[in-house]
Design goal:
With about 350 residues, the protein is of the alpha+beta class. It has helices spanning about 10-20, 30-40, 90-105, 140-145, 150-160, 175-185, 195-205, 250-260, 280-285, 315-320, 325-340; strands at about 1-5, 45-50, 55-65, 70-75, 85, 110-115, 125, 130-135, 165-170, 210-215, 220-230, 230-240, 265-275, 290-300. The two termini are about 30 Å apart.
């Protein structure tokens, strides 16, 4: 039994393990390594345990090293879960040992392993984040029937408001990115580069797609989705702050639900939220079930868990300033900062 830092030649075997293992999720797939390296330039350590010529455990790690937030290892940054998957405890222990060896080698002060559901890892975990999901069907009427009476009424009102939906791929990316950048500025959060979304569309043809909401021909809302093994996630969504009277988020998520069902997906993941937040409350209205996220962490000095969120007091001044910057400027200066945020 030995730990290997996987290389491109191992990609097929890695993906075979992911496809066969029920604990693996979309973001364990090898192509996400290429996306992160292409879009952000971060070094990756895709660890796997090999025994008798077969893989028995995997752990994808990304090393983020910046002056802004220091040196840290994460599995997997930018997404909710892609942590350690092992068939036996011995494999798990080997991966944790190798992770700490790498952390010391690269002088990473913090390690975070993101898991969907409970884990037996000996490291402490953060549980403030969850994801919400629901069943989805190819028949829009069945999707409607699953909603509460109040939600059915709300959705039908948006369908009569003059909004139109359009779905597609890279040809819609700029419209989505414009709305997404505007929303991120409003939240006081640096925006990802357009190249990040381009890389996802390029590496996952047919499994990554966009859905836009338009009003009188103008895009006022958009969602970016990725799917795998019957599950589709709304990774990023945004609506123009100036169009909130039209309830574009309600319209957009309804359309994304229906489009996902038509594409053959059976579970719709609304994406992660902080428990008790406004987005959490919005997603609960869709007859969703809560899935706990356990983010196990380790730090070189035994420090508290890393908290890079808007509720952290140390970032309030930066958020206030960001919200007042011109959107074009945030598109320019935002991506170099966003790539450092796990």
């Amino acid at each position: 039994m030995r730990v290997i830092i996987a290389k491109e030649e191992h990609s097929a075997s890695w993906n075979d393990f992911v496809a066969a293992h029920t604990s693996c999720v979309n973001y364990h797939r090898w192509a996400w390594k290429r996306v992160i390296e292409d879009a952000f330039g971060w070094q990756t350590f895709y660890l796997m345990v090999e025994e008798d010529g077969k893989i028995s455990a995997i752990l994808p790690l990304v090393w983020l090293n910046s002056k802004l937030f220091g040196s840290l290892l994460c599995s997997l940054p930018f997404f909710s879960s892609a942590g350690l998957v092992a068939d036996q405890s011995a494999s798990c222990e080997l991966l944790l040992e190798e992770t700490l060896r790498i952390a010391r080698e690269v002088k990473a002060k913090y390690v975070e392993l993101r898991h969907r559901g409970t884990t037996s890892l000996p490291w402490p975990s953060k549980t403030a984040k969850v994801t919400l999901e629901c069943d989805v069907y190819s028949d829009p009427e069945e999707n409607m029937r699953r909603l509460s009476t109040k939600m059915r009424t709300n959705v039908r009102r948006t369908l009569k408001s003059g909004l139109e939906a359009v779905g597609g791929g890279e040809e819609l990316l700029q419209e989505f990115y414009d709305v997404f950048s505007l929303k991120m500025r409003e939240l006081g959060t640096p925006v990802y580069s357009r190249a990040f979304f381009e890389a996802i569309l390029r590496h996952f043809p047919g499994e990554a797609f966009l859905c836009l909401g338009r009003y009188h021909g103008k895009t006022i809302a958009g969602g970016f989705l990725t799917g795998y093994r019957g599950v589709v996630e709304a990774n990023w969504s945004a609506a123009s702050p100036k169009a909130m009277n039209l309830r574009p988020n309600m319209f957009l998520f309804w359309k994304m639900l229906c489009v996902s069902g038509e594409k053959g997906y059976r579970t719709f993941d609304f994406g992660r939220s902080s428990v008790g937040s406004g987005t959490y409350e919005f997603k609960q209205q869709w007859n969703t079930r809560v899935v706990a996220l356990f983010w196990n962490h380790w730090s070189m000095a035994g420090e508290q868990a890393l908290e890079l969120n808007p509720n952290n007091p140390r970032y309030r001044a930066a958020i206030w300033t960001w919200q007042r910057l011109p959107v074009f400027f945030t598109k320019w200066i935002g991506p170099p900062i966003a790539r450092c945020l796990p």
